[in-house]
């Protein structure tokens, strides 16, 4: 029979079919044989510095590419990746976590192998994975392996969350049937429930009758696979459109009717008034964590909201189950596209952003920095703002078309954004290959966060990615300082010489000298930003900007002032 | 009532009572209020660069000190630490993992908080911890909190493994009863089972009648709390004594009858012959993983062995349950101490170590490096050899009295040893405070492993610890190369400039210049080792030595040659 294929080739063929171009991970005793097949399968192998970084990078790659793969080794490797997998779960990034496990005979005989607790138990780590992945499977024989692989990959796509695949070290080379490979893996359509027509009719009715309708795009819209439809909806209706923190970058901010982030009482007053008096809020992909919803204040009231989420649509307080939001949205668009009766122009005045008030002698600070760097972002670029002051400041960037941005949504694991930047930049480069386009990826990160995962800069260098890393050096965990313990030493971090990063992490000596920058004043920052190497350079560049330890804005300033008031009261 | 105390003070008082001097961890939203109490309680706070490093450091501290504490935050922090906690479980290090969790009202109301999956579930991460900790508890009210704390601390001591303690963010300041604090926490004595006398009699009989008895000290002897008794036994009997990889450093290698590591067919032939023909092998704290037992070849045969482990003693094939090995050993010593009839001198010839054959023009290599550096170790020093070639080479060091060493036992998570070094050095400095003694800690680590956790060097610098880091630069994961894929690119790592480490990680400029060294030849290495700054310096020093990509010895050489043979056969 010619219809057989080696197991590893089967798996990697499936990954290629689903658009995966690179695989992240770290080699380990129980995955080396699997790794032999990665490059021959036409996949690029990204060896990361450690597994947490690899998981973060796979997450970033998936957010841009739609799917990613991570290979770790049993126990030591997979557990190091756990927090990264949990991050992908919380923020809906489909990552195939492939764990190379000890060969089957060792497991069957309960051998006391290394990377176990030397007690014959082999099921512990898979049991742990059930809590942070959407589905799990363990390959154990050649008969069932292909179906198991197909099932687990489909689960990742359906849930848009990580899944867990155990692959014993004695299996990469075994033959399995290749028959399935002729049928692509797809998310199946759900049947139309009886109430679908009624739901659509209610929505259409509300859309036509609305006097002051708005659109709210939250981040789970990505997982719903409706971004193109949303673009059509926004263009068709011309309704004022906002995003959440999580949804930012999923809509085209260059349209006149797109306002960027909705921040309720933490944003501008006219927007808040308009949003709160809307009689219809079409809401997509809601994700109502405290951090993504400004403590719940941005959540639309039931009376105005029609909400599209995974398998439900909610109209006022009626929750309709077993829906396909994508199909309902498509049906809605068929009815209203090119129908000018749905158009509602107007909306609150847009906030103008200017930098003319910023003097060259001003020190770089939260209230000027983001405005000054915003112009360097180009169409299709990626901007990542790490949890901390960067994520708060980066929320109000005006994004060019097709630009994507990641901020602090819900998981908020500091250290995440740096490896995520590696993965996102790599995915973008691969997606650009057909068009020949080139993009910049910019990471803005604090001096506390960067200490968590800094070594991954060396992989960015090795991969020759065009990444600008802007380090906000404010001497510690400023975000924690404003939450609690603003003068406590536990919020300090060790002193690092960030301008030595490229040197330590192995960039060419000439590159190091020409691509490391610092700025303390706005004049210096303006000068640096004019440098072509900074805004459109090659390879990794470092820009360190100094800010005050307690320099914060928005909700963080609110928390800081609250803490200061409590100090005065002697609490 | 004056008999009340704040919860955090209760916990930290208990830790102080049990000899904990420093606490490791990373601040996070849900533990900041707890951190307020650390320093006022007289504990030193070590803020680590990330949670995995913190867990590794806590493990190292515990191996020297006997107990340690780690504080992380809910979800993001604790999951990052998971692999470090698992390491402590596998190799029996009691670490109190304290997780700051969201305030109780948020949990009760299933609020969609950050650091959760925004689905109202708060039990996931605690469920994961059940697989990698010996006991778990969640503080939830003031009535039961003190007993729960006492119980969890006792469990850590009993099992000599990590435990998991959830402490809600609204509880550090609540009052609890201080009554328990008057009673120290101890490991309770187990009752003597009926068969204890018979067991002791059988052992005594065998001890007197043995013609060629030997002692084997494995690593779980530390968890059994019998190290002082073992020292007496070794001195009393003068029997030839070996250790496992895990047991190395637990016995005084300066005694004439102590031979160091027993490696069966991977060690010297006379030792193997002597060990295998012994008619009695008193075996303590066995831990028979493949890596700690040279694929099982060092495990004594049942016919000769009497084995002391947790709660059992095995004589030939008879396993006696419910024993206290420490009590039986104490009773044995009472009977045989000062009784010359148990003395058996002799044993195989000791292998002499010489460096006179090493030429100054020789390149530094596995077969000369360990012999050349061995003389710099002093009494009470700590030597850590990271998984990889370093761990294999370091097994044959001749250790000075009271020196401790950690090598590759079972968990073998690369990256572990560097933060472990931080924790071990800190514990040693604290233990030395009373005597005023000073010790060096030396880490030997490969260029692959160091990339996993390198940032912790900055914490070593901040803590002003006297640590020599020797980096074996052999251009990648040499240990993985010899296992599989010796020419595969996945075993490469990014190029780093290790001599820039102290500079990047913030050491004083003068210190950087005077404490960074390299050696390519044995002559250079000899010269460097003469430098007082290297062998007895202050602060962190870096020594980079270059070795060949495939330079290995012992079992690793065996694996390499096997792979080369397979390549020839075209496998």
TrEMBL record, chains A, B:
Molecular function (Gene Ontology), one example: magnesium ion binding
GO biological process, one term: aromatic amino acid family catabolic process to alcohol via Ehrlich pathway
Cofactor(s), by name: Mg(2+); thiamine diphosphate
Catalyzed reactions: a 2-oxocarboxylate + H(+) = an aldehyde + CO2
Cited SUPFAM superfamilies: DHS-like NAD/FAD-binding domain (SSF52467), Thiamin diphosphate-binding fold (THDP-binding) (SSF52518)
An annotated GO cellular component: nucleus
CDD domains according to UniProt: TPP_PYR_PDC_IPDC_like (cd07038)
Top-rank taxon: Eukaryota
Co-factor binding comment: Binds 1 Mg(2+) per subunit.
Residue sites binding Mg(2+) per the record: 447, 474, 476
Domain Thiamine pyrophosphate enzyme central, chain residue ranges per copy: 200-319
Record's keyword annotation contains Nucleotide-binding: no
Residues covered by the Thiamine pyrophosphate enzyme N-terminal TPP-binding domain: 6-108
Domain Thiamine pyrophosphate enzyme TPP-binding as annotated: residue spans: 392-483
Keywords for this protein: Decarboxylase, Lyase, Magnesium, Metal-binding, Pyruvate, Thiamine pyrophosphate
Alphabetized Pfam families for the sequence: TPP_enzyme_C, TPP_enzyme_M, TPP_enzyme_N
EC number: 4.1.1.1
PANTHER family cross-referenced by the UniProt entry: PYRUVATE DECARBOXYLASE
Similarity comment text for this entry: Belongs to the TPP enzyme family.
Protein name per UniProt: Pyruvate decarboxylase
Organism listed in the record: Penicillium cinerascens
